[in-house]
Structures are given as C-alpha cells and as structure tokens.
Amino acid sequence: MEExxxxxxLEELRTKLGYTQGDISSLLGIDxxxxxxxxxxxxxxxxxxxxxxxxxxxxxxxxxxxxISPAIQMVxxxxxxxxxxxxxIQAVNRIVLNTIFMSNLLNER
Length: 109
Prior knowledge:
By secondary structure, the protein is an all-alpha fold. It has helices spanning 6-16, 21-28, 32-40, 47-57, 70-75, 83-107. It has one domain (6-107): 434 Repressor (Amino-terminal Domain) (Orthogonal Bundle). Helices cover 64% and strands 0% of the residues.
C-alpha cells in the first residue's frame, strides 16, 4: 500500500467533501496560504489545528489505525457551506469520532 503524506491526505479529504481552502481556513481562523502550506507539506500542522481538521473531516488523523466515518462525512456535507455550518458539522463529527474511538477501545479488551 502506498504511503500518503499528511498534507496530501488533508487535501484529499477537503476536496472529497467539496470544501475549498477558503472554507476550511475561515473556520480555522488561519490564512488560506497557511492551509495551502499544510496541504503541500511545506509546513507542519500543529496538534490543535490537526484536531480541528479531524472534527471537520470526521476522521482520525492522529491515531493509527485511522478512524474514518465516510457515511457521516456524506450526511453532513452541505452546499454553499458557511462557517456556522462547518462549526455544527465539526461538533457532531467530534461526538462520532469519540464514540468510534471508545468503541474500538472496548473491543480491544
């Protein structure tokens, strides 16, 4: 299996969900050029930004193996996304990720 860089993974998730760099950078409160540098691998992503991106994309970008919930990603994708929409999506996705993570922990027992 080909290893994909974190930056490439972030770009793939963003484009798969139909978000622009402007959508995501606006929610994160960062400049769009900084997000571009994250996606190109020119700059390392801070843990706090990475956690916010996990919530937006509804996938675990920190732990291995990654926790991904594509069904949730599709359900909560909207056209003409606003920062308010993304914040709501982010909150629901965090609940989903925590639930999946806890379930995986219980199954490992």
